């Protein structure tokens, strides 16, 4: 999930030109309805600057359905309550920007934390997108040797199309060009014939990862609860799409799913220091789950963590 690059027309003349060039009328009321619906369904908070992005994404859906206006499409969406169309609506408005070993400073911390465990690790990647992040986590665990042979990664996302791509595990060769050759040879197969120029995650790595459809604003999550408690949760570059109350609600739901001392990884521009006492800052956008009852005696630690969180937030 997810960092859209947004452009918007500025100035009255360019704005009128953009409107005139559109295939469908798109009113302020249409945009307001869409903002309300996607917030209700997925917790995504759309700013005014994302109007062009919303139009472009959903205009494809209108063309695909043959509907001629946004108001007609939204009326039908709300009236029918068709789960497949709601899924298509949500998929259209989520953004999948990811890469293997993105924010690479997190992976040595992950490796060190897991290496100290006495049992195979359990990790939840709660915004897996098209799979690069959970497979990066799985590679990190696999390289720790036989002690982690039973390690597992649960990868989830709200976007069903992204999950399907992640489960397939096939990527353009350019997408793995920054992965060291030793890892490429160990974990990937090169495509031939019609799949030349592509690579596929091998069966051993694929077996470490399971994929689940999860809406983060709608706990409880039965599949996630069955796999809990986790040693690590990755929730990177997701919270930026939610408002503060929604972020706090999600963090509250995470806490009982993570073992005391377990780690929560956040994105480079995300700061959770002020939202909950269940986690304390341990490193750059890395948080540690505080043991139950430990918070009262560690107010000084929390103050230091909050100060560090403010610094990380300002640098991010």
UniProtKB/TrEMBL annotation:
Its EC number is 2.1.1.80. It comes from the Bacteria. Keywords: Methyltransferase, S-adenosyl-L-methionine, Transferase. It is an enzyme of class 2 (transferase). Residues 19-292 form the CheR-type methyltransferase domain. It catalyses: L-glutamyl-[protein] + S-adenosyl-L-methionine = [protein]-L-glutamate 5-O-methyl ester + S-adenosyl-L-homocysteine. The keyword Transferase applies. The keyword Transcription does not apply. It holds the Pfam family CheR. Methylation of the membrane-bound methyl-accepting chemotaxis proteins (MCP) to form gamma-glutamyl methyl ester residues in MCP. This is Chemotaxis protein methyltransferase.
């Amino acid at each position: 999930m997810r960092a859209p690059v947004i452009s918007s027309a500025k100035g009255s003349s360019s704005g009128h030109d953009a409107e005139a060039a559109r295939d469908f009328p798109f009113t302020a009321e249409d945009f307001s309805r869409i903002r309300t619906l996607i917030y209700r369904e997925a917790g995504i908070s759309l700013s005014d600057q994302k109007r062009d992005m919303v139009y472009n994404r959903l205009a494809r859906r209108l063309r695909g359905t043959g509907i001629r206006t946004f108001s007609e499409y939204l009326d039908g969406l709300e009236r029918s309550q068709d789960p497949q169309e709601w899924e298509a609506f949500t998929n259209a408005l989520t953004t999948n920007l990811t890469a293997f070993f993105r924010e690479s400073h997190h992976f040595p911390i992950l490796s060190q934390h897991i290496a100290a465990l006495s049992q195979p690790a359990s990790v939840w990647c709660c915004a897996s997108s098209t799979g690069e992040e959970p497979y990066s986590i799985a590679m990190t665990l696999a390289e720790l040797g036989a002690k982690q042979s039973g390690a597992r990664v649960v990868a989830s996302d709200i976007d069903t199309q992204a999950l399907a791509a992640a489960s397939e595990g096939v990527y353009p060769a350019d997408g793995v060009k920054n992965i060291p050759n030793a890892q490429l040879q160990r974990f990937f197969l090169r495509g031939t014939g019609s799949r030349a120029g592509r690579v596929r995650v091998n069966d051993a790595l694929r077996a470490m990862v399971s994929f689940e459809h999860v809406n983060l604003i709608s706990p409880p999550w039965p599949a996630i609860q069955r796999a809990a408690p986790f040693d690590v949760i990755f929730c990177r570059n997701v919270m930026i799409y939610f408002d503060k109350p929604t972020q706090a609600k999600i963090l509250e739901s995470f806490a009982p799913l993570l073992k005391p001392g377990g780690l929560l990884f956040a994105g480079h521009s995300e700061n959770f220091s002020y939202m909950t006492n269940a986690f304390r800052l341990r490193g750059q956008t890395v948080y540690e789950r505080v043991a139950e009852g430990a918070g009262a005696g560690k107010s000084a630690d929390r103050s230091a963590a909050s100060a560090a969180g403010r610094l990380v937030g300002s640098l991010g």
